[in-house]
Amino acid sequence: MSKDIKALKIYYVYILECSDASYYIGITSNLSKRLYEHNRGVDISSYTYSRKPVQLKWYAEFTDVNLAIEKEKQLKGWSRRKKKALIDKDWEKLIQFSKNYTEFGKGG
What are the GIY-YIG domain coordinates in residue numbering (predicted)? Predict the structure, then answer.
């Protein structure tokens, strides 16, 4: 391998389930450190601070930070049902909730 090749930086988009059963979606370059920070309560103003403990439910890896940011924004716009279908790897429901937005609505 050439000396000129740099190691690719990995970015993670992740979904946490909080103690109140809500979901938190974030992006980081160090998933284990970020999960620790969420559970430790480093930032009192963060969404997860008063919702500890949190549990990692899903994540995806990206080598392009712009694609990671795009995915984070996309997931934040999804309904709870659609996020749960992704977490559960229930592809049929994920497709169903994507196609039938007006029937199933954004909630739930």
Answer: 9-85
Reported pTM: 0.85
Structure confidence by residue, pLDDT tens digits, 28-42: 999 999 999 999 998
- Beta strands 11-17 and 23-28, pairing class: antiparallel
Domain-by-domain residue ranges, the chain?
Answer: 8-77, 78-108
CATH number of the domain located at residue range(s) 8-77 in this protein: 3.40.1440.10
pLDDT of 47 strictly over 60? yes
For 39, counting Cβ atoms within 10 Å of its Cβ (0-12 exposed, 13-18 middle, 19+ buried), the class is middle
Tokens found for residue 65:
């930070």
